[in-house]
């Protein structure tokens, strides 16, 4: 999605002396164009599946199921010794579903306005980044080589999904832009960190996380546009069918990544 941030050197500062970055194999993929495509698709999937579940069953039951699936996926991810495409992207997809539900529960269940929930999750993400950098002296995703760093990483990922959900809903609903216009707007915004990093020397860590946050409302806006009823500005395809299509696309992409290892440092050399 944002090739300008492909394969960046994301180290803002060296790791602590007692815990070097090379302490173990990486638990996350290399940042390539495939990463951004998969990330955008999983964010859209999180939105569509969440919408489908909360309307197909009791919202409380849907949240419980989302939480259980989220926890199980993370347990699997933490148990593997290094990055594996299937386990990593399964975890991201489950985070997308549960993160969407977490933001929606605040608004629908507790009546918190989108502006309030967006501000709350901005503070939560800031606290996670502060604790991560204070503990590890880096926010680089290339440094996810220890269990503690992986905990910080996934805390940041959950926070970005929840914050992005609230921001996307704020723009589309409270801001009156509608789903399609919001999606186009966020597509334009996501180019800002790419251009800033590529041509204006924007800090690579800041560029990465800015783009990472923006993929959430980008994917969610287009998922809503496809799935929501026409009376609210959607194409009325239905969140269930949108979820199935997205799941198939993600499975195909992840299968390709798992086979080629094109998004790892240990992949086979490319043929000329």
Q: How would you describe this protein?
A:
The structure is a single chain. With 272 residues, the chain is an all-alpha fold. It is built from nine helices and no strands. The chain has helices at residues 33-56, 59-79, 85-109, 114-136, 147-174, 179-189, 191-199, 204-227, 239-260. Helix 1 (33-56) packs across helix 8 and helix 2 (59-79) packs antiparallel against helix 3 (85-109). The chain is globular, with a radius of gyration of 18 Å.
Topology:
Blueprint: H1 33-56, H2 59-79, H3 85-109, H4 114-136, H5 147-174, H6 179-189, H7 191-199, H8 204-227, H9 239-260
Helix pairs in contact: 1-2, 1-3, 1-8, 1-9, 2-3, 3-5, 4-5, 5-6, 5-8, 6-8, 7-8, 8-9
Write a brief caption for the model.
The protein is mainly alpha-helical and 272 residues long.
Report the major sheet: none
The N- and C-terminal alpha carbons lie at a distance of 25 Å
Q: Which percent bin holds the helix content?
A: 55-70%
Write down the overall mean pLDDT.
86
User: What sequence of helices (H) and strands (E) makes up the elements?
Assistant: HHHHHHHHH
List low-confidence stretches: 1-22, 268-272
Please count the helical segments.
9
Bin the strand percentage.
under 5%
* Strand tally: 0
Q: Judging from the principal axes of the Cα atoms, what is the shape?
A: globular
Cα-atom Rg, whole angstroms? 18 Å
Structural class: mainly alpha
